[in-house]
């Protein structure tokens, strides 16, 4: 995973997880909503990355 994301990417993931954890402790409903939002954004980003890679003939 370190090869794919690098140190900055792993730190970013940890920060996002800590932020969602803080929100969930404060209000579980808001934490669940933010988690669903982040999952949707991740799927959109994966789709865009796959589409771009196909356009360049890399996949």
From TrEMBL:
Pfam families: DUF7470. InterPro entries: DUF7470. Keywords: Membrane, Transmembrane, Transmembrane helix. The chain crosses the membrane at residues 5-23, 29-49. This is Uncharacterized protein. The lineage of its organism: Archaea, Methanobacteriati, Methanobacteriota, Stenosarchaea group, Halobacteria.
